[in-house]
Design goal:
The protein is of the alpha+beta class. The protein contains three helices and five strands, in the order E-E-H-E-H-E-H-E. It has a five-stranded mixed β-sheet with strand order 1-2-3-5-4, covered by helices on one side.
Length: about 100
Amino acid sequence: MGIQDGFVQFSAGTAPQFRRRGVQTALLGARVADATSAGCELALVTVQPGSRSQRNVQRRGFDLLYTRATLISTTPAGRSFTSPERVTQSKTEQGTTHIQSTS
C-alpha cells in the first residue's frame, strides 16, 4: 500500500487455497481504514475485469474508472515480438481494470 499526497494505491493477491474465505474483503477493509486514518481522500485498486476481485472492491464502494486493453503485434516476418502466453500471464498478474473510490 503506497500513500502519497492524500492518495493511496492498493495491490495484493490471494493464494488460491485461501480464496472464497473473505481474506480479500478483510484486507481491503483494513487498508481502507488505515488509509482513511492517514488522511487519504482517494484510493485506487487494480483488478482483472469481470473478476470476483472487481465485484469485491465494488461492493466496498469503489467505482470503475477505466478498463485497459492489452494488445499484441507481430513482426513483418510473422514472428511475435512477445509470446501470447507471456501476454496472458502479464494480464493475469497485473489486472486490467482500475477502480477508484473517493470515500
